[in-house]
Design goal:
Number of domains: 3
Largest sheet: 5 strands, parallel
CATH class of the largest domain: Mainly Alpha
Strand content: 5-15%
Number of helices: 17
Strand order of the largest sheet: 2-3-4-1-5
CATH topology of the largest domain: Zinc Finger, Delta Prime, domain 3
Structural class: alpha/beta
Distance between the termini: 48 Å
CATH architecture of the largest domain: Up-down Bundle
Number of strands: 7
Order of helices and strands: EHHEHEHHEHEHEHHEHHHHHHHH
Length: 339
């Protein structure tokens, strides 16, 4: 696997950095990138101090920041879970930033760091704030492309990133893990390449939640009740998180079928519909699914999925039982095939 490198967009050697946001995976990655960038070749044993925000005193942090570094151009002090630390010592931190240490660098990791506070404004003036708020679904392909480039020096086209998102879902941490696995997979001497291809994604990631959901729905729309139920049971047996994610995965797919059905009703060419609704996995089969349904069919299913979601979260039924009943009802009720 190619060696990881940090992005050049984050300047080093500023007096303070704050990594904030509730996306813990991205925040941890950003903190590690900053540590690597700031310390460079320095020995972290003598140039890095790390504290938990709930336990450390401001005096200890300031003493560390003002202590001259040993065998290093700077001393880095990291405060993790820093929200209580910031709340307790906000005034002291504001005072410190008026005259920060010339050789000490403070890195705070917090869930929240409101931009309107005096501390945040001063930090933005002399340091850097890195926001790690949850990524919106439409931002994910660009995020994955950048991650593959910055962390693994791999090219990831937008369409391939969309395929990966379709297969895995919208959870950034899971998507990052898959890119890491792909980087290892592509590092095989028998597969010399610097590009993540759709073929590689399908080869390594194909058997997963969204792929299994696609197969269940494909069997449903083909009227294969037993196959659909068998595929669903296999999905739950293989994926321990399915109980919590399967309803959302089904709803996500049926919403795309709904959008596809609208385009088909507007006489849009079937060949172009999958791309317009963001489908990259088996587009021909997806269109067959959409052509089997009408808007009323899909709207009923989406309402049923909302009810299953509510019932499963309130203890009324399990998600597996709810989806099984949906499949049985769908496959046994007559439907008018549309074009």
């Amino acid at each position: 696997m190619a060696a990881k490198k940090t992005t050049n967009s984050t300047p080093a050697k500023l007096p303070i950095y704050v990594v904030s946001g509730k996306d813990r995976r991205r925040a941890a990655d950003q903190v590690q990138q900053l540590i690597d960038l700031i310390l460079a070749d320095a020995d972290p044993q003598v140039s890095l101090s790390s504290y938990e925000g709930a336990n450390v005193q401001i005096a200890d942090v300031l003493d560390e920041l003002r202590t001259l570094p040993f065998l290093s151009p700077c001393r880095l002090v990291v405060v993790k879970e820093a929200d209580p630390f910031i709340t307790k010592y906000r005034s002291a931190l504001e005072d410190y930033l008026e005259s920060p240490s010339a050789t000490g660098i403070l890195l705070l990791m917090a869930d929240s760091f409101p931009k309107t506070t005096k501390l945040a404004k001063k930090t933005a003036q002399i340091g850097k704030i890195v926001a790690c708020d949850p990524i919106k679904p439409y931002q994910i392909p660009e995020f994955l492309t950048q991650y593959a480039r910055d962390q693994h020096q791999l090219t990831l086209a937008k369409t391939t990133a969309q395929l990966l998102q379709e297969l895995i879902g919208d959870e950034p941490g899971m998507l990052i893990s898959e890119i890491d696995k792909l980087a290892v997979y592509l590092a095989d001497p028998d597969k010399p390449t610097n590009k993540i291809t759709p073929q590689a994604v399908n080869a390594l990631v194909g058997q997963n939640r969204q792929y299994n959901v696609f197969n269940v729905i494909d069997a449903m729309t083909a009227g294969k009740t037993t196959v659909a139920l068998t595929q669903l049971e296999k999905m739950f047996n293989q994926d321990r998180d399915a109980q919590y994610t399967v309803v959302g995965a089904f709803a996500w797919h049926f919403r795309r079928l709904y959008n596809a059905r609208i385009l088909l009703d507007q006489r849009v060419s079937p060949a172009s519909v999958p791309k317009q609704v963001g489908v990259w996995l088996h587009p021909e089969q997806f269109i067959k699914q959409a052509q089997t349904l009408n808007l009323a069919n899909i709207a009923i299913i989406l309402r049923q999925l909302m009810n299953i979601d509510y019932q499963s979260k309130s203890g009324g039924m399990t998600a597996q039982f709810g989806i099984e009943q949906l499949i049985l009802k769908f496959c046994t009720q007559p439907r008018t095939k549309t074009g």
